[in-house]
Amino acid sequence: MKCPFCAFADSKVVDSRPDKEGSTIRRRRECESCGKRFTTRERVEEILPLVIKKDGRREPFDRMKLVAGVMKACEKRPVSVETIERLIDRLEIQMQESGEKEIPSKSLGEWVMTELHGIDQVAYVRFASVYRSFKDITEFMSELQELLKK
Asked: Does the predicted model carry a pTM greater than 0.70?
């Protein structure tokens, strides 16, 4: 593992432990050249389905793209990064367990909205407004009224 401080190619593992969910392993490493320590996380390389976009294009699932979208919806809200990471982890597990080779972006968006609805309703409305591309205030108000009914 290349050292982030001096770019030396070799480091030794000083400590290793699984995360709470058991999906990643946190490793403390020490550079064999400069002696500085750094942390890496190791996870199983997963084969996730392709995402079918609204226009029919297919692209690989991009975890960071989804994390960024959810983080934007949760901006200035009391939602931790850990909560967002766990939400995306659950989505990835669900996608793997489905066995599907392709999944419509609409399904991903609906799943995220369902999860956000239970976490933070303001984040839910923010995500829905971008995901569903509300064309005017009437559509936005309609979504808010549905939220209030639940």
From this structure: no
